[in-house]
Amino acid sequence: MITLLAVTSLVSAQEWQQQRIDASSNPDAWIKKTSELIKQYDNQRQYEELAMAYALQVEAYRYSGHESKAHAAIDEGLRFAELADSKTAKTLLRINQTWYFLQRGQLRQANTSVIYARENAKASGNSDLQIEADILHAQVMQNTGDIAHALQTLEQLNRNAYTAHPRLQVEFHALIGSIYLDVGANDIGLEHIQNALDISREHLGQWDVSVLEYNLATAYQAAENDEKARQHFETALEISKAINDDLGVAYALFQMASIDIKNENYQRALERLNRAMPQFKSAGAHPMEAQSRLAMVSAYLGTNELETAFAQLEAASSVINTLADNQLYQTLNERWSEYYQSKENYKAALERYKTSVNYMQKVQEQTQDKQVQEIMVRLEIKEQETTNELLKKENQLQQLELQEQQTSYYLLVWIIISGLLVVIIVSAFLYQQWRARKNFAELALKDDLTNAPNRRAIVRICKKGLEQAREQQRQLALAVVDFDYFKAINDQFGHDVGDRVLQRFAEVAKLSLRDQDNFGRLGGEEWLLVFFDVSKEDAKNIFERITKEMNSKPISGLPEDYRITFSMGFTNAHPEDSFDSLYKRADDVLFEAKDKGRERLVITD
Predict the structure, then answer these.
(1) Global pTM?
(2) Which of 297, 366, 407, 461 fits a 20 to 30 Å CA distance from 130?
(3) Close Cβ partners of 544 (under 8 Å, ≥ 6 residues apart)
(4) Neighbours of 190 (CB within 10 A)
(5) Nearest to 259 by CA among 286, 287, 298
(6) Is 466 exposed, middle or buried (0-12, 13-18, 19+ CB in 10 A)?
(7) Bridge pairing between strands 518-523 and 526-532
(8) Which residues form the GGDEF domain (predicted)?
């Protein structure tokens, strides 16, 4: 039961943030409650509180899938937010307006709306609102294909902005995970989205959890783990049902249908799609309506219902023609090509396929660095095989016609040459995508300052090392290193000098450790070292060698006689250790080393 809110509660930052979370678990109750508050504030002419009530009501409508009602509430809320000049209310309403436009594929309007959201967030002075608006701006950039700038925005936030608010941590991890999925780095994407889901389960409401369950399922789908994908889609479906989020139900049904189609379970796929389609249409979610119709085409082609497939292709074409989405145009032409193959009209099939490749090129040019997923998922080997098959069938058909008409020879030559050009284009794209993926994967695992492995990379190395140690019955050890009085270096000599100290450590560690050992920067001046088959005596030698090399030559900006020291905690792994337990033990003895006077190594079993 939601009790009546005090008049001032809606403009208290802590209160309305918590109310957004509460609305996520019980949207219907919050729709009713905000309606009462709107009536109360309207009668009292309290326009700022009235605008905030509308902002909360919009989110409740979104959580229950009532998009048209959310849109109407946004317009009303903005009217009163302008009267009260409430920057907070304007920001929240513009944020929800942006999501509304994204849902419909109206990317230009979404971009305009998020610019207003960022301006008002900055004017509000609320740092969390500014972060939320910046994350949403990155989301819009991702949707428009500008992956490089979206990733740059998120990485800048990661370096320069901090928030303890769970919602923003979830949004950050969810979006950056989605971007890594876009560029083909599926393992990193999965890690971020799993982090977002863990946070949402602990701190946020049920709608947020359902969205993250859905996102994690799509990540597993991209990684071709259909079983785990199905499990998380089913969880998202159940949560959406529980909170009466019909649109969320439709999203889950659509993705489960796509798995059914992949497994050639066409009838079950069609049942799910026919349940999802009305929700997408009523919500005005045109991109999802188009995708659902294209999925139906695949299912009907699978059951050889060609006339029904044709009708869905016509309907999908009508929807897609209202959207500026080259990706959808590409998929549409692929389905037309498949349809014409089924009709044995190979000439039309090849023409449609060539058109799909042209749209692929437009997507390539538009999205800049969004190169890997399109090729890895949709083109890679599959498209080359499709081209070869089309050319083979066309060749057979033309050979028969050559018996009756010699001039068909020239058409065959033209088709073969065109097909070869398509193969060359696709091959060139594949090579570009492979290079882009390699670059992204390397950047995602490197520390910007030192070029050493970053926290994500070294933690992953340690986790894999623990598994390898158990399988091969080897001994793994972990050391945590932290510089002594590093803050004093920064304060006295400047952060540039502190950066050079960190860079020196990366150089020294790389030279001092064996090929089978690894190191990485955890953050700040803290480092992690991972060893296989080292003794306590080896640990002492490593500590002394690195200390000696760190001070073997001056560092620019420090006095020549300045001695750099660090403390190290070292421990061997136990068979039952997880990364967290192993790290905690090493960190505990690092603290002991600091407590005993620094510049020392402390070892524990």
Answers:
(1) 0.60
(2) 366
(3) none
(4) 20
(5) 298
(6) buried
(7) antiparallel
(8) 474-605
- Sequential DSSP letters for 22-37: HHHH-HHHHHHHHHHH
SS3 of the chain: helix, strand, coil, percent, to 5:
75, 5, 20
Number of CB atoms found within 10 A of residue 354's CB: 18
Question: 323 lies in a domain?
Answer: yes
DSSP annotation of 452: S
- Residue with the two structure tokens 């190290």: 568
Whether 216 shows a pLDDT value over 50: the answer reads yes
- Are residues 571 and 476 in contact, defined by beta-carbon separation less than 8 angstroms? no
Q: pLDDT value at position 149?
A: 77
Range of the domain at 268: 245-344
Check: CB of residue 348 under 8 Å from CB of residue 332: no
- Tell which of 344, 378, 405 closes a domain: 344
- Look at 179 and 521; give whichever has higher pLDDT: 521
Predicted pLDDT of residue 481: 94
Q: How many CB atoms lie within 10 A of CB 493?
A: 18
pLDDT tens across 217-266, in order? 888 888 888 899 899 999 999 998 998 888 889 999 999 999 999 999 99
Distance separating alpha carbons of residues 258 and 245, to the nearest angstrom: 21
State the DSSP string of 165-220: -HHHHHHHHHHHHHHHHHTT-HHHHHHHHHHHHHHHHHHS-HHHHHHHHHHHHHHH
β-bridge mates for residue 446, sequence order: 453
pLDDT tens-digit profile of 372-394?
A: 333 333 333 333 444 445 455 55
Cα–Cα distance, 120 to 130 (Å, whole number): 9
Residue 519 contacts residue 529 (beta carbons within 8 Å): yes
Given 304, 325, 344, the domain boundary residue is 344
- In-domain check, residue 371: no
Neighbours of 391 (CB within 10 A): 20
Alpha helix segments (H runs only) across 450-599: 455-472, 486-493, 495-512, 536-550, 579-595
Domain CATH number, residue 250: 1.25.40.10
Residue 262 lies in a domain: yes
∠ CA 347-348-351 to the nearest 5 degrees? 90
Q: Is 75 part of a structural domain of the chain?
A: no
- In whole angstroms, how large is the CA radius of gyration of the chain? 29
Number of domains in the chain: 2
Count helices and strands (H / E) in the chain: 26, 5
pLDDT digits (tens, 9 = 90+) for 22-76: 877 888 888 899 899 889 988 888 888 888 888 889 888 888 878 888 889 899 9
340 and 477 belong to one structural domain: no
Record the tokens describing residue 518, joined without a space: 């690894």
Shortest CA distance to 229 belongs to which of 275, 203, 260? 260
Q: What is the pLDDT of residues 467-503, one digit of tens each?
A: 888 888 889 999 999 999 888 988 899 988 999 999 9
Question: Do 465 and 595 belong to one domain?
Answer: yes
501: domain CATH number is: 3.30.70.270
Which pLDDT does position 312 carry in this prediction?
Answer: 92
